[in-house]
């Protein structure tokens, strides 16, 4: 039975212990993310309205850019394990601070935006540190085989986080105060629990990874280091364009999805939390099956130069569905878009980043995984606001404005589809670029001793 499972998941017997431990770490962080996200989004939209997301998201992204820039200053100079422990400690302290604000009855316009922005920073920064650690541990061939399985840890954490949020909302019907109080306390507790879990995984292990030895850089110099690879390696230049354009489309899809839910629940925060939590719970179940049964096998048999085209194609179909039927299509479209992004594109992108030398990988990863998405969200919110402005002023029907911003997403996705297609022609040439040169990597089993 175990051998059949190992063959199906392509995991060697000696790899299970570390794989499960890393899955648990990623799952714990994702549990906190999902639990806080459901409560923050439900409270924010119910208190302030869906349209207010168009200023909240850009503010969150601007802070993410600053945080990612600060992270990039230290990522290639600090031991990955210590970095993850410090991040968990910082996020745990922030959740305790929000809990204190809640006890002092801070207004909803302050508490829920602050919780949402904190959640966004954790969503952007912690995965960067985690996948940098994973890339230090695993060689490129191992990454293609094991990263989809590691990603399933995030899916399990998402399953638990969304399920717990929905159950808490069901249990505390009519008591929004205690609901938020409990969630903030749980988030802080799980973060501090994660610090001890990281220590248990690595306190007897030695990670061998090169660290940058150059003098301390400014945020601008760090940005330029990542930009240098993006500009001069065709693979990463096109990949950045794919991430930016699909980020525009995902921003539109997410906004349209939340707007559709808000129409259904009619400004009831606990009902919103319940519906949103159960919706994401169903999504995670499907994502888990996809990652465990299909993603690893398909990625191991598919060349990366051909695989990046999948996300733009799925986004194109999802947007067309939303154009045909805005309400139902929006709910289903968000489902398909996030499935393709999380279950396929993210592990694919992480495995490709493993070809970047250790001493540069963290900064390149920040540029691709943080800056591209952040700038796409800011631009996307600006475009949606401009499209909705005539509708807010009463000069344009709301249904027509919806079709216009979905049309913008369709155009952005078409550009991303072109860039993903071009990757097929530059991939092999890009691997010969001197910026990707490095010494021979060792296997995980040579670098870690239990």
TrEMBL record:
It comes from the Bacteria. Keywords: ATP-binding, Cell membrane, Membrane, Nucleotide-binding, Transmembrane, Transmembrane helix, Transport. The chain crosses the membrane at residues 20-48, 54-75, 87-104, 146-170, 182-202, 238-258, 278-295, 307-328, 373-396, 403-421. It holds the Pfam family TLC. GO terms for cellular component: plasma membrane. One of its GO terms (molecular function) is ATP:ADP antiporter activity. This is ADP,ATP carrier protein.
